[in-house]
Amino acid sequence: MHGIFTIFRKEMEDHFSSIRFLLISALIVMVGVIIASMVGMGIQEESKGMAKPTFLFLWLFTSTGKLFSFVQFIGFFGPLIGIFLGFDSINRERVSRTLSKLLSQPIYRDSVINAKFLAGVAIIAIVLVAIVLIISGLGIRLIGVVPGSEEVFRLVIYLIASILYIAFWLGISILFSVIFRSTATSALASLAVWIFFSFFLGLGAGFMADAVAPIGQSGTGVDPSAVIKHEQVQRTISLFSPMTLYNDATTTILDPLRKTTRSLILMGPMERLSLSRFQSPLPLLQSLFIVIPHLVSLVAISFLCFGICYLVFMRQEIRTV
């Protein structure tokens, strides 16, 4: 751990002084403010002259409005933040021949990779906390509702999940920065992984579900068991995507009325007869129990990705010049 604080401070200074960080931050703040303004004005119009419903404040983050919700924006474009912060973290040092000079100092090699990853996570946390606070302040101004303690705790859990999610992509980009010597190659490889998980995995899950469990027509209509099996196969494959884990976890934790992360639920006669008991919002602890597997999975893949990056970097040969 010797020298890790020094490198961490240097990386933070580099991030805060870089044009890239300023552009990314300005873009996220601009989009977040636009989304919050549109959603807030829509909520203000719809709730005019009516009693404010429970958990109205959380609608600022989950309501789609005319474009998309803030949760959807972070789920889709959040990986780009981690990619932009880490795709040149190591190979840039190689190209500028500062990595060998840095390691010639009394600094352990693992301090370099640890400090770069921690600095990236710190930047991600700062950006997300800042934009959530901006949206919260703007929302209080527009809809006139102050969040309660449970809503604040739900937002904190959402922030933790978002940081873990983007940290995974930061680890991916740093890994490619370690493997490839060209910054352009590492950036393209990171973007290729993002495109694969964003588009092709979902399409592949649908094709695989159609091949393994096709939905056939019978004399009485669609077979319910075939529909359920089709949905199970598609969901199982989709869970390999970090985006699916993140979207399921955040939408469930920010929507107390959502009782499960599944999109298709099989209900028997007794459940249909007592459907009214499912209309009340879930307490925070019960929502947390539902999303704990997703949060644990996000932690696992983030640490696994960084662990591979750490191992590859520690085994690489770094020549002094």
Question: Care to describe what's here?
Answer:
Strand 1 and strand 2 form a beta hairpin. Strands 1-2 form a two-stranded antiparallel sheet. With 321 residues, it is mainly α. The chain has one domain (4-257, 281-315). It has 13 helices and two strands; from the N terminus they run αααααααααββαααα. Helix 8 (149-179) packs across helix 9 and helix 8 (149-179) runs antiparallel to helix 11.
Task: Summarize, please.
By secondary structure, the protein is an all-alpha fold. 73% of the residues lie in helices and 1% in strands.
What keywords describe this structure?
321 residues; mainly alpha; two-stranded antiparallel sheet; 1% strand
Computed Rg: 23 Å
Please describe the biggest sheet, giving its number of strands, its sense, and whether it closes into a barrel: 2 strands, antiparallel
- Report the sheet-strand fraction: under 5%
**H/E element sequence:** HHHHHHHHHEEHHHH
Inertia-based shape = globular
Regions with little confidence, pLDDT below 50 for 5+ residues: 266-277
**Strands of the largest sheet, in order across it?**
1-2
* Share of helical residues: over 70%
Report, as a whole number of angstroms, the end-to-end distance: 25 Å
Give the helix tally. Answer: 13
Query: Mean pLDDT score, rounded?
Result: 81
Task: Produce the secondary structure layout.
Layout: H1 4-17, H2 19-46, H3 59-62, H4 70-86, H5 91-95, H6 99-103, H7 109-143, H8 149-179, H9 183-212, E1 217-218, E2 221-222, H10 224-238, H11 242-254, H12 269-273, H13 284-315
Antiparallel strand pairs: 1-2
